[in-house]
TrEMBL record:
Residues 1-33 form the signal peptide. Residues 238-645 form the Peptidase S53 domain. It comes from Streptomyces coacervatus. InterPro entries: Peptidase_S8/S53_dom, Peptidase_S8/S53_dom_sf, Peptidase_S8_Ser-AS, S53_propep, Sedolisin_dom, Tripeptidyl-peptidase_I. Keywords: Calcium, Hydrolase, Metal-binding, Protease, Serine protease, Signal, Zymogen. It comes from the Bacteria. Its cofactor is Ca(2+). It holds the Pfam family Peptidase_S8. The keyword Metal-binding applies. This is S53 family peptidase.
Length: 645
């Protein structure tokens, strides 16, 4: 099982905020277990870290666990096939979406399958605690779970801690005839048990110090040392919707008639006020009555472990960014009960089962090493159901570049690595005077601080701090839509047969050229108040691309784009993307930044630094497709290319 803690992809001007926060299997088919006659193996249920060397012996028979048994449905292979066909412009089935009810009837589990699975679980001594159209949840002791799933549960060391996991791949009786897709929860690495039904207040206010640029290059840091042989501008105060709409070719479109959903954990208690206040201050259209909705759980859990208050800023960013770029789109926020996989899966399922929107923005994730095939299968099944209904999912690609600095291993993020979602990478964006697009680099930052005498930058250009996630998956096969476009050297980096490469498309993410948001926060005196700050991260890129897709859907007369990757790659090379490179002007680029040391005022002093652009760990934005920005960012003509006369 992965870490179970999704991480938020937001980077503020204070550097990377604490992470809160993302494999493709087309479904994991049951395989007959040769060493377990009469059973069908549930592939991927034994974690890679559960090795013989790490084995510390049997788990206690009486230890309690909670698990979910996911249904394969009546035609898992048919679901994957139709999800592909309905999303492929070259297919005769393209755009022939099903309703949520039709999808469930054609591909979901039958009443007989559900009843059989529940009967099997109960007969093994497990207690059924809930049933949805996707899974049965159960509780019980280790002994009952071992009986049900035909395995033994042992204790294993993982790092400095010990966790429970299956000693061999779990299985289900073959009498169920493949009704079970997978089971999650047999391992507990880690198990989060803190419960709190009350959300905490907003976190302490964060503000940016000046000087600022109002557009790129408007305020040159003439008194600071040169960088790369010339004077550099101060960082942007925070781009607005007007500037982003111009940069990404919004034209006359506003997203009218299009529904966008946003998933995150928890819920900001002041989102309606903040969104309306922000729109009024920055020239965005006023939110109309009923334009912003929230779908929230009955209770919240793990609020301390998940740093619940930190998610308020994520929701605020996502909501305000979507509205800034697509001001007429209908927005539904779907809050998860926690940052755990089970709860996030439930939120995604709510969108699909009730078809709450055609476009879904998701600014969270985790590293691929923390994902396991059982959970990948559960996520992909939701994404496939979404695809057959005409729903597209957009996931931020991560904020730690190739992940080496953060995790010690070069890897991509998940669920952005799924070949059933659109992975959104990040850029540094220069919008000039009169809202004119100038250029973009791949987002990757190196930081050096001002020397004590103010005459130089210490150890320039400094160390890597953050950057757009990207690279080649180690677990997900190369999807058909990337073939012939993604360079072979990238696709085969981990496997000669070719793997999924992330991202697919990109947009503004660099906090040094970031977006201004407004949020009610806890002020230094302990009171609550609305304040504004600049923010970035691929948490910004994902809702911006989701909003651009809303514009594109409006341009095609409201017909859902659905799973967008086939359409996105079909437009490659047709002049509708900014081909993002790391040195768009032919030389290295940087901006100057001044920050409050304490994060909100000058009483603690100021810190001056230089931030180099286009320095994304080992990843590079180059001409053509690359693993920082994908096919590039939307240019003038992208939205209009969806127009159907």
């Amino acid at each position: 099982m992965r870490s179970n803690r999704a991480k938020l992809r937001t980077v503020s001007m204070a550097a990377t905020l604490p992470m809160i926060a993302g494999a493709l299997a087309l479904g994991i088919p049951a395989a007959h277990a040769a060493d377990n006659p009469g059973r069908d193996a549930l592939a991927g249920t034994k974690p890679a870290w559960a090795t013989a060397k790490a084995d510390k012996g049997d788990a206690s028979n009486g230890a309690q666990l909670s698990a979910r048994v996911y249904f394969a449905g009546k035609d898992a292979a048919g679901l994957a096939a139709y999800a592909k066909a309905v999303s492929d412009p070259s297919s005769a089935a393209y755009g022939k979406y099903l309703s949520a009810k039709q999808a469930a009837a054609r591909y979901g589990a039958t009443k007989a399958q559900v009843a059989a699975v529940k009967s099997w679980l109960r007969s093994s001594g497990l207690k059924v605690t809930g049933t949805t159209q996707h899974y049965v949840s159960v509780t019980g002791d280790v002994a009952a779970a071992e009986k049900a799933f035909g395995t033994q549960l042992h204790n294993y060391t993982k790092g400095s801690k010990t966790y429970r996991a299956p000693a061999k791949t779990a299985s289900a009786p073959d009498s169920l005839k493949g009704a079970v897709l997978t089971v999650t929860g047999l391992d507990n690495a880690p198990h989060k048990s803190t419960h709190n039904d009350q959300l905490p207040p907003p976190e302490t206010v964060f503000r940016n110090s000046g000087p600022f640029s109002s557009y790129y290059g408007s305020n040159i840091a003439s008194t600071l040392p040169d960088a790369y042989g010339s004077k550099i501008p101060y960082a942007i105060q925070g781009y607005t919707g007007k500037q982003l709409r111009a940069a990404y070719g919004a034209g006359k479109y506003t997203g009218k008639g299009v529904r966008v959903a946003i998933t995150d954990a928890y819920a900001s208690p002041s989102i309606a006020f903040d969104a309306q206040t922000y729109a009024g201050k920055h020239g965005d259209a006023k939110w109309s009555t009923g334009q912003l909705h929230q779908v929230l759980p009955k209770k919240y859990t793990n609020t301390k472990d998940c740093s619940a208050a930190g998610w308020y800023g994520e929701e605020t960013l996502d909501v305000e960014a979507v509205h800034a770029v697509a001001p007429a789109a209908d927005v539904t926020y779907v809050g998860s009960a926690s940052c755990m996989d089970n709860d996030l899966l439930d939120s995604l399922s709510k969108v699909v089962d009730n078809h709450l929107a055609d476009i879904v923005s998701n600014s969270w994730g985790d590293i691929e090493a923390n994902q396991t095939p059982d959970l990948a299968a559960a996520y992909d099944q939701v994404f496939q159901f979404g695809a057959v209904e005409g729903i597209g999912f957009y996931f931020s690609s991560g904020d730690d570049g190739d992940q080496v600095a953060k995790s010690g291993t070069k890897q991509v993020d998940t669920p952005a690595n799924s070949s059933w979602v659109t992975a959104v990478g990040g850029t540094s964006l220069a919008v000039g005077q009169d809202d004119k697009y100038q250029w973009e680099t791949g987002w990757g930052t190196e930081k050096a601080v001002l020397s004590a005498d103010g005459k130089s930058w210490t150890n320039f250009p400094g160390a890597f701090t953050s950057g757009a996630g990207g690279g080649t998956s180690k677990t997900v096969a190369q999807p058909y839509y990337q073939k012939g476009i993604v360079p072979n050297a990238l696709a085969t980096a981990n496997n000669a047969a070719g793997n999924r490469v992330v991202p697919d498309i990109s947009a503004i993410a660099d906090p040094n050229t970031g977006f201004k948001v407004g949020q009610t926060q806890t002020l230094p005196d302990g009171t609550l108040g609305y304040d504004e700050y600049r923010i970035g991260g691929t948490s910004l890129a994902a809702p911006v691309i989701a909003a651009v897709q809303a514009l594109a859907q409006e341009a095609r007369g409201g017909k859902a784009i659905g799973f967008a990757n086939p359409e996105i790659y079909a437009r490659y090379g047709k002049g509708v993307y900014h081909d993002v490179v790391d040195k768009p002007t032919g030389k290295d680029l940087a901006v100057a930044r001044v920050d409050f040391v304490n994060g909100y005022d000058a009483t603690g002093g100021l810190a001056t630094s230089v931030r180099s652009l286009g320095k994304d760990s080992s990843l590079s934005a180059v001409k053509g497709y690359d693993d920082v920005t994908g096919v590039g960012s939307p240019a003038n003509g992208y939205v209009e290319s969806y127009h159907k006369p």
